[in-house]
Amino acid sequence: MASKRHTRRAARPDDWIIAIPSYKRAETLRDKTLETLRTHRIPKARVHVFVANKAEHDTYKATLDPATYGHLHIAEPGMAAVRNYITRFFPVGKQIFNMDDDIRGFVEWSEGARRNERPLRDLAGAITRGFREARRTGLRLFGFYPVANGYFMRGGPPTTDLRYIIGAVWGIVNPGKVLTVTIDDKEDYLRSVIMYVLDGGVLRFNNIAPQTAYYKEPGGMQEERTMNRIDKSAHAMVEAFPDLVKINLTKKSGMPEVRLRDSRPEAERRFGPAALGTYKMPHVEK
User: Fold this and answer.
1) Where are the beta strands (DSSP E) in the chain?
2) What are phi and psi of 142, to 5 degrees?
3) Among 11, 64, 143, 274, whose CB has the most other CB atoms within 10 angstroms?
4) Mean per-residue pLDDT pooled into runs of 10, the chain (286 residues)
5) Whether the Cβ atoms of residue 193 and residue 241 lie closer than 8 Å to each other
């Protein structure tokens, strides 16, 4: 039985900010994500950059173009830590569009175009549509298709079942500390599962995808990521959510992967904070 949809009053769907966590990638952020936002004419006042410490703050301040961002914050090191810091930093109900620091653009599905894709024409409009749909449905997490390939992307309305919401770009109506991720690797899978269990679904717009080099950009999480830790994180997710997460043996990325599927009988499906409380969050030793 799905939970009641959230009906609290929220900001207008166009009242959102952008949060960008970044670590040892000042030039990447300047040349990719901030340049992408500049190209799409996103007002700099909306853009918040979060770095790990004072030394990083000074480096970023000296490197970034102040015309492309509005706020530079010192957060905490580590992917889970900075994600949780951003959740705590903004008030509950705040509409936050999160972006990685190496986004070089977006594509949108377009039937008849080359590979059925073209450059996204209106990023601000896409973000606003995401939050509008989140308000309409009560599903507070939304995202885009994970791979920029028009052969696999689709038009039509967003899906609402249990889907992977990739961590490169995602929108959230901030639920507060209930959204606390506990692992650095697979933290986007964990967030997808948490919000699915809380809300009874997540929104994924399969007609838009980010352009980014997963696992390949120097700096960032690559500074500390190891195959062993990724493998442990994947298995920790399965152990924590055995009826929602399985190991995916078909992926060709070379990374240990998982797949999401709600295998609970429909009559036994429960959602909401109490349902989430029946699961033990995954942990991996660093």
Assistant:
1) 16-21, 47-51, 71-74, 95-99, 105-109, 117-119, 141-144, 169-173, 203-205, 208-211, 245-248, 257-260
2) -135, 155
3) 143
4) 45 94 97 98 98 98 98 96 98 98 97 89 98 98 96 95 98 98 96 98 98 68 70 96 90 75 97 98 89
5) yes
